[in-house]
């Protein structure tokens, strides 16, 4: 069965790198079909790292909904309408199915070949060597589109008296049959989560697919599981630190390229060991990786930082969404977004546009408030733009600058520094 390794929505460097490396480790340690995916646009800094390391980035896959195409039963034959009726009935008989879908000459769905529908035809002693296209077919079956999410059609299909559902593609071409019993089967893939565990922050469809493993360094807010799962969590600066440790524990040495990928995740998430989330474990494992990669974290970090500033390379609507995390706490629904920007003057010049983009997010996602933390990893400080209800704004412990922006000297971490203050302000 396929296993996807996936970081949080609005991918950042640590989540993409840890997914890529953990997929590699799981492959080496015996998992047959495992693939790292990126549940959104690949960050420019991450793209730079993969190019630099000389490996392909994870494929962008925006959801893990189980779709009709995943449940098509390949063993159920399709009847071509040019086939003689007698041959078609023989095939139906040998298939053991009660009906089979018929494909027209142009590839579209023609109807179901079903003995019940043919009784009058038999009684009329008709010639059975005519092509299926001239025989009466059953038409009223529910036709499914292969792209339909299963959760959308499950109820209607289960309520339908038929057991066989023809499946067509976007052009109406017949692709096969979905059998009713497929709805009872396990989803055809499963997930390993890295760098997050809150379902609200995960890839859409996450709640439909079994999670078999989590590797994370955030607060735990995961759901109850049906079966035991592997869960690796620790208070370290980067998920890549945890994945690197797992290589060591498994007696595996990452390739040069994967070592560079892991270094990038650590350097990005700890802001080159300046963030208060940094631990000795991050530094120690990083120097092990530097030897394998034969390059320094500083070099990889400065390579990443050379990639365009987000406020310069993205419109405000994209910048506020690029690393946004949704929280629901104390009856409040809010988003804390973060961007790294070494050109603070660009931020101040763009405040109006960013505010409009944040107000649009508040309306679209039905939020109480949204805060955008703009972090300068070089100067080691952040500034915060806040939109939404006043009660929270008043409680935040930060001083405000001339343009109403909160000043946060020494604050670099959303998770460890901003989130606790926000939680205190709403409780
Ligand atoms: Mn992380």
Overview of the structural elements:
With 427 residues, the protein is α/β, with parallel strands linked by helices. The chain folds into 3 domains: 2-65 and 188-305, Alpha-Beta Complex (inorganic pyrophosphatase (n-terminal core)), CATH 3.90.1640.10; 69-184, CBS-domain (Roll), CATH 3.10.580.10; 310-426, DHHA2 domain (Diaminopimelate Epimerase, Chain A, domain 1, Roll), CATH 3.10.310.20. Helix content is 37%, strand content 21%. The strands form 4 sheets. Strands 3-2-1-10-11-12 form a 6-stranded parallel sheet. Strand 7 (144-145), helix 6 and strand 8 (164-168) form a beta-alpha-beta unit. It is elongated. It binds manganese (II) ion. Manganese (II) ion binds next to loops. Residues 14, 195, 217, 238-239, 269 line the site of manganese (II) ion.
What is the fold's blueprint, element by element?
Elements (H helix, E strand, L loop, with lengths): L1 E5 L6 H16 L5 E5 L5 H10 L5 E2 L7 H4 L7 E2 L4 H11 L4 E4 L5 E5 L1 H9 L20 E2 L4 H10 L4 E5 L5 E6 L9 E6 L16 E6 L13 E4 L5 H11 L6 H14 L10 H14 L3 H9 L4 H4 L2 H6 L2 E6 L2 E9 L3 H6 L1 H15 L3 E8 L4 E8 L1 H6 L3 E2 L5 E4 L4 H13 L1
Helix pairs in contact: 1-7, 1-8, 2-8, 2-10, 7-8, 8-9, 8-10
Bound molecules: manganese (II) ion.
């Amino acid at each position: 069965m396929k296993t996807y390794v996936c970081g949080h929505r609005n991918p950042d460097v640590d989540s993409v790198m840890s997914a890529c490396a953990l997929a590699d480790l799981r492959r080496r340690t015996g998992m047959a079909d495992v693939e790292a995916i990126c549940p959104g646009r690949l960050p420019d800094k991450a793209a730079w790292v993969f190019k630099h390391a000389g490996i392909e980035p994870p494929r962008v896959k925006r959801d893990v909904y189980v779709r009709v195409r995943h449940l098509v039963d390949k063993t159920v034959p399709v009847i071509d309408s040019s086939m003689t009726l007698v041959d078609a009935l023989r095939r139906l008989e040998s298939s053991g199915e009660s009906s089979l879908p018929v494909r027209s000459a142009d590839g579209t769905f023609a109807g179901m070949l079903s003995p019940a529908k043919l009784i009058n035809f038999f009684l009329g002693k008709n010639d059975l060597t005519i092509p299926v296209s001239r025989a009466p077919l059953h038409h009223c079956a529910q036709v499914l589109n292969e792209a339909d999410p299963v959760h959308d059609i499950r109820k209607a299909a289960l309520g339908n008296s038929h057991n066989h559902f023809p499946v067509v593609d976007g052009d109406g071409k017949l692709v096969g049959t979905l059998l009713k019993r497929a709805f009872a089967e396990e989803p055809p893939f499963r997930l390993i989560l890295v760098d997050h565990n809150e379902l609200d922050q995960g890839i859409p469809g996450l709640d439909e697919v079994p999670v078999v493993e989590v590797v994370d360094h955030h607060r735990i807010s995961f759901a109850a599981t049906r079966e035991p799962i592997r869960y690796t969590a620790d208070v370290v600066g980067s998920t890549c630190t945890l994945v690197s440790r797992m290589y060591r524990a498994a007696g595996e040495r990452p390739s040069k390229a994967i070592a560079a990928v892991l270094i990038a995740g650590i350097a990005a998430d700890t802001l080159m060991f300046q963030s208060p989330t940094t631990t000795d474990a991050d530094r120690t494992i990083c120097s092990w990786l530097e030897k394998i990669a034969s390059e320094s974290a500083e070099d990889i970090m400065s390579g990443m930082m050379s990639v365009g500033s987000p406020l310069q390379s993205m419109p405000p609507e994209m910048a506020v969404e690029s690393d946004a995390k949704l929280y629901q706490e104390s009856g409040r629904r809010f988003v804390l977004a973060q961007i790294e920007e070494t050109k603070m003057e660009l931020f101040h010049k763009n405040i109006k546009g960013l505010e409009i983009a944040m107000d649009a997010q508040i309306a679209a996602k039905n939020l109480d408030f949204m805060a955008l933390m703009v972090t300068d990893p070089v100067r080691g400080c952040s500034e915060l733009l806040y939109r939404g209800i006043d009660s929270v704004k008043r409680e935040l412990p930060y001083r405000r600058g001339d343009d109403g922006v909160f000043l946060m000297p020494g604050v670099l971490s959303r998770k460890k520094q901003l989130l606790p203050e926000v939680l205190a302000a709403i409780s």
